[in-house]
Write a structure and sequence with these properties.
The protein is mostly beta strands and 260 residues long. Helices cover 0% and strands 45% of the residues. It has one domain (16-245): Jelly Rolls.
Amino acid sequence: MIDMNHPANWKFESPTAPGWHTVVGPHNSALQRLSVFRLNLLAGDSHELCHETLELNLGVVSGTVRLTFNGTDHRLGCRDSVYLIPGDRVTVTAEAGEPVVAFAGAAPFHGVGASYVRQYDPNLPLGAVHQIHGEAPFRRQVFMTVDQDTPASSMINGFTWGDPGAWTSWPPHEHTAHLEEVYCYFDLPAPRFALHLCSRKPATVEFVHPVHTGDCVIIPEGYHPTVAMPGSSSSYFWLMAAHRPESRRYDLAVSDPAFV
């Protein structure tokens, strides 16, 4: 029998065929609240994005899509996103050019939140949405798609990318009691790779997953630093779901005392 709680079983390869695919969730992993989907579209293809019971956050990692939201047309590319509360729906249509790949997280909805589109802006001043953490060799940029200051029910999500050949999520930290998480990797086409380290114990490495574009690594518990090969960046769309509404906070992580 497969032990879903062991870090060796925390990596999931997402499907590459056209369409909407379930990647990982409580039905096939150690996750309790969070589900992750992948959307693949060829030019001209469309998909209606909606969930009847869960809040949903879709982030584009390649290609360009068009959608109409609240009567306004939007063009979404890499690191752009849309957040939807249950029952709200948009049709996502791929433009000509690079095929579209997007990941989406879904989590329990408790009546808090309103649907919106958020487009990536590298010139946005540092603050709640655009952040920089750490210093070389573990400096990384963060662009939040669902930040803790914007109303939502369970999720806090965003994009992270590190410097080439550098670490991210360092020093190692964990938020087991409060939040579970999934890293969805992109911009790492094979043979380029990063390493995702897993451990449920301080000052140890229990398992290491080599990751490429399309790999999703769940974090139901424990520490989860990453490092990229030289010349590549560890880039991922991370999705977090709080176990309780009061845990929907970004400041609950506890660093590994061995590396502080």
